[in-house]
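Hi there. Long-time user, first ticket. I'm pasting a complex I've been working with (about 444 residues overall). I'd like to know whether the download I got is complete or cut off, because the file seemed smaller than I expected. Thanks.
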Amino acid sequence: MAKITYHTHDNKIHAIDVQNGLTVMEGAIQNDIPGIDADCGGGMACATCHVYVKEEWLDKLPTKEDGEEDMLDMAFEPKNNSRLSCQLIVSDELDGLEVNIPSKQG
Amino acid sequence: MNKTDVLIIGAGPTGLFCAHQLGIIGLSCEIVDNLDKAGGQCIELYPDKPIYDIPAVPECTGEELTNNLLKQIKPFNVKFNLNERVEKLKKKQNRWHVKTSGGIEFDVAAIVIAGGVGSFEPRKFSVKECEKFEGKSLLYSIKDKSIFNDKTISIFGGGDSALDWAIELSNTSNVNLIHRRDGFSGAEASVQKVKELNDQGKLNLYTKFQIDSVMGDKKIESVKIKHDEGEIKEIKSDYVLGFFGLIMQLGPILDWGLNIDKKTVKVSTENFETNVNGIFAIGDICSYPGKLKLILSGFHEGALAARGCFKYAKPDEKLRFEFTTTSKAAQERLGVKK
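Hi, the file is complete. Here it is re-exported in full:
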């Protein structure tokens, strides 16, 4: 279990306990947190679960697989701290992670 | 007006298999899809990626799955209406009249929405003022490349479309290629070619830059791009092209009075009919308790929806359940009867 904090574009803060093994994307979807579409269902094929990771967490997250950066090229306003939340698998190490959800996914 | 029993919206695996099931029970159908080919997400998102969970098929790619489904429905001569998006829907007595973006009209007894997560549309620039130039000097696809002759073109993106067009147009135009990072997702050979052309001064490559704003009155005159580190460059441009792939949008289906929740349509699991009689939804677009977004679930949903369509297409007949191994009628329809 890890506490993941989602900052949505309407300036609301959603701190959610997400089970280990789920992805940060699934944590958002299951808790009805707005702004993550996840059109492809977690297949790293659509870039609609794009989030901005709080800077201090960037180095602590698992590194991106090849396809993730390619998909981020398609994302809405990608930045250096962009990740696809479907690729972030929750574990105890991610306890305290904070992500910002962009204003749109496409 | 095209008259057929059922209109299937979406030519992905679910829509294709539903066409098969309709054919087996003796109903006719046509398929509409906004893409230029059949296959849906399988073809558009992962044509080369292996799929491992199609029953009795240990491994196949999205493209192989699509080709096999097309082969499987060949006996039914299903008509495809590609590059068309359904727009308008009207109830006419017991039938539905549907009109597409290209003006094709259908008169059908039932509709099966197998639309995945919506129709594929180009992803657009996030910069607001881009809208006012869209379709004129700012484009997301190219129909006539001769309009670019001797012009200055700024192309954004790092995939195959961006690279291929940058290479091609560098022969006839002054090309700027702008991409948000040093790496590209397009083919390695194209990346090398673009770098060569950049070294030879035949195109200008800007990496770690993204669009900042576009300037111009009636048409684009220049575009400002911003580096990761904050530097802003203004480059003269007659045209701006964006190649950021496709995104799925639900589109006009939203206005059909269907029970929609979070981009999906609620259905009854008995026959996959929606809250509107005669309109069915199957595959990723439908939702019900326990829904799995798997291709195999879409096949099951299509089989039941096809049977649900029967009472609308042939209200005076009774549908008898039969197996393809033994049914003479089904085998005749498949063209395999000895």
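A couple of notes from our side: The longest helix of chain B spans residues 295-313. The first strand of chain B starts at residue 2 and ends at 9.
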